[in-house]
Design a protein that fits this description.
By secondary structure, the protein is α/β, with parallel strands linked by helices. The chain has a single domain, classed as Oxidized Rhodanese, domain 1 (3-Layer(aba) Sandwich). 30% of the residues lie in helices and 15% in strands. The protein is built from five helices and five strands. The protein has a five-stranded parallel β-sheet with strand order 1-5-4-2-3. Strand 4, helix 4 and strand 5 form a beta-alpha-beta unit. The N and C termini lie far apart (36 Å). The N terminus is likely disordered.
Length: 113
């Protein structure tokens, strides 16, 4: 099985950074960065909205249900947990961005600050 996992009911999909950049345009999805505020200010993927992982249960209503949701953290662990949570509460299309912002930075891709 490749790292680009196929949709399975009850499971989020993981996507690589290249796939994300090729297939998701600015306003056709919501990119949610679940890192802590001190991580966010050091740089984040352009277009991301910041909702720290521990705030997701109170703030998930800020995420539109009618667009795919891509979740990112530093390395992909927290975003996996949040992706599973969002699926569990009814978000129909959720992706975990593999390698997180660390992978983004290692590729020398642009960051917003």
């Amino acid at each position: 099985m490749s790292s680009e996992s196929s949709p399975t009911e009850g499971h989020f999909r993981s996507i690589g950074i290249e796939t994300y950049r090729e297939n998701f345009k600015t306003d056709d999805h919501t990119l949610v960065d679940v890192r802590e505020p001190e991580e966010w200010v050091r740089g984040h993927v352009p277009g991301a909205v910041h909702i720290p992982m521990n705030s997701i249960p109170e703030r998930y209503g800020e995420i539109p249900l009618d667009k795919p949701v891509v979740v990112v953290c530093a390395h992909g662990q927290r975003s996996m947990m949040v992706s599973q949570y969002l699926l569990g509460i009814g978000f129909p299309e959720v992706y975990n961005l593999e390698e997180g912002t660390h992978g983004w930075m290692m590729r020398r891709l642009p960051l917003d600050r």
